[in-house]
Structures are given as C-alpha cells and as structure tokens.
Amino acid sequence: xxxxxxxxxxxxxxxxxxxxxxxxxxxxxxxxxxxxxxxxxxxxxxxxxxxxxxxxxxxxxxxxxxxxxxxxxxxxxxxxxxxxxxxxxxxxxxxxxxxxxxxxxxxxxxxxxxxxxxxxxxxxxxxxxxxxxxxxxxxxxxxxxxxxxxxxxxxxxxxxxxxxxxxxxxxxxxxxxxxxxxxxxxxxxxxxxxxxxxxxxxxxxxxxxxxxxxxxxxxxxxxxxxxxxxxxxxxxxxxxxxxxxxxxxxxxxxxxxxxxxxxxxxxxxxxxxxxxx
Length: 277
Prior knowledge:
Blueprint: H1 3-17, H2 27-30, E1 52-63, E2 66-78, E3 83-87, H3 94-101, E4 109-114, E5 117-118, H4 124-134, E6 135-139, H5 150-161, H6 164-169, H7 171-184, H8 200-211, E7 218-222, H9 230-247, E8 250-255, H10 258-261, E9 266-271, E10 274-275
Parallel strand pairs: 3-8, 3-9, 6-7, 7-8
Antiparallel strand pairs: 1-2, 1-4, 4-5, 9-10
C-alpha cells in the first residue's frame, strides 16, 4: 500500500466527513456505472449475463524436482445468478480451482471461460483489468489494509481501478457507494474504525463490501467463514445469501464445512483434484 494511496483515500474520507451527515443516500447517485474506459489491448469486450466455467483444467505445483498434481481434468460451469459452493477436504484442490477461475493463477492445461470468452490465456495486465472490472474476491484472511479505516478499505478498489484524475472526478459518487455498501453489510457505524478495531466478523463484512465496490458480476469467496465462530459465520453467510437473492449476484464459494455449503443453491464436491459430486 503506497503512502500516496493512503493519503488520497484519507483526504477523500475527510472531505466526506466534512459534510456532517456523511452521505446523501440518493439512490440515483449510487447507481454509478462500471468505469467505461476502453479496455486494454487483449481484453475481450464482454456482454450478456455473467457465466464462469472451465474445461479440462489441470494444475500442478513443483516440490523440489517432483510435480504434485492439484487439479486433474476439472470441468465446471456456473450460471448467471447461481450460488455454488465448492466443498472438499484440505488439499483437495478447491482453492486452486477458485484462484484459476478468478485469473489469480494460470492452469497448466485447459481453459477458463467467462461469458463464452477464454480468459486464462490473456496477458497478465489484461487479466488484472478483467478481474477488477468483473469479479469481486473475498478471502479467509480478509486482506484489509491495516492503515486504512473500514470506509477507506471499501473505497480502495475505486482508486486503484481509476486513474488519479478519474477517481477525483467521481469521488463523491464513489464515497456515497462505499458508505451504502457499509450500510448494506451492517457496518455504517464502524466506517471510521481501522481493522485492528474491528472483530473478525466485522473485518470479513468489510471485505465483502470492498469486493462489491465496482459492481462485480461474480463474487469469488475462499473460505469466507473459515476464521469465524459459528454465530459470526452465520451472519456472514446471511449477507452472502441476501446478495445472491436480492441482487442476483453470482457467487462461487469454497468451504470445507458442509453446513455452510448447504446454504448455497448447489454444492460441488472436489477430491484429489477431481469433481466427484
């Protein structure tokens, strides 16, 4: 996290705080479109409902001179608006599959498809742009920036995605959306608190709000309740289920917990790198 980013977001927050009531909740002001700048070379122009999947996906990792297979010919599809849980034991390949679907890593063989477009073979910069524009991601470890408040953490993707001038031109809309998202996850009163001042459940809900900042079509969640007790985990799952039901958000979630997986529309079981159920 650069000091300039922290400074910019802090200044944005101070400007926001100076309005007194913090935000004018006009729905029209919150319906900001995803940035419409021309995509970088190599990024497909995507249209239609989000649909994510893979074909004959293989992935292995090297341990010394030995290749350890992790995924072995996985074929997988998720429809628009579906909530799918990928369940499996530790080391089964479920997190690796999620990372490949989210273009955080590349497969050794096979294809990852989004809206019918192959995306795993795009250049790294193009994959980053596509991921930022279309996918939201949450992780077991939260990955919040410790020097920023909850509000600033939620706002960060907008600043990173936009150019500096582009961000400042839209800062009022982005600040309004950040506060709306914190309210959505029940944390409007914790907006000025840093991660060290939040509980585990509050940090995860902040991470969910951050993942939604740029209005993704697909939310990828890697063990979102893994570090939480049952009660707090249930609160996080309630938030995810409401996002899926009320906003038709496509969600792919990895978990080892059958009770958590059972709250999804569909459960896919993975074992030893293969889909088995």
